[in-house]
């Protein structure tokens, strides 16, 4: 069967062909074309389009195309599900949902930069995802230092040194990150930053920021913190009677009022309208 997608594949468009060839269609043939030609050429060649708008096999809700393949073909392998979180995080710049996501994105971007031919790039991607699958099957619960006593000793010495130098207060970047998020809420409601952009602004490694984030933000991950901050901003806007709930949803970065209502209820336990009425009664 022929499968077709956008040219210059990186994360999802390398992972999905690997998944197709390994678990769905061992004789699959893959075509890479300019994005604006995918659907027309799919019809012309009788190929199945994926990872493009209006295709069946594409992103849905907050999930990547790789997730849809697993759902569509009932692939319940725990290793594949573990890979899916990493691929989703790397493909959508949500590196906080899996610590390996930032590394996968870095390697994928590097491969794409170094290899100009898409089919050669796909071959390299197959090697990459074979390795990731083996890790997910056999090594995801083990750590590098467990099998290297000397490196483990060096690491322990390093940790003692870091601990001896560490101050009692929170790192400077915590305060700076809070201010950056607040600045975006105050001036750019429709474009909240992701963790990668914030790490660049703070001149921090994205993997480090993802790993350390919950330690300084009440055990919340980055997505949870941003949602909470947006909800708090919405509550402050409730005090202005000139704003409708629809306008407040837009001003706090939600795609529509139903999405706003669902997240607001998850965070506060109330719908926005009920919460606003309770505020007005006080």
TrEMBL record:
Pfam family, one: HTH_18
InterPro entries in the cross-refs: ChrB_C, Homeodomain-like_sf, HTH_AraC, Tscrpt_reg_AraC-type_HTH
Entry keyword Transcription: yes
Domain HTH araC/xylS-type residues, every copy: 175-278
Entry annotated with the keyword Endoplasmic reticulum: no
Keyword annotations of the record: DNA-binding, Transcription, Transcription regulation
Entry-linked PANTHER family: ARAC-FAMILY TRANSCRIPTIONAL REGULATOR (PTHR43280), HTH-TYPE TRANSCRIPTIONAL ACTIVATOR RHAS (PTHR43280:SF28)
Name assigned to this protein: HTH araC/xylS-type domain-containing protein
Organism whose genome encodes this protein: Ravibacter arvi
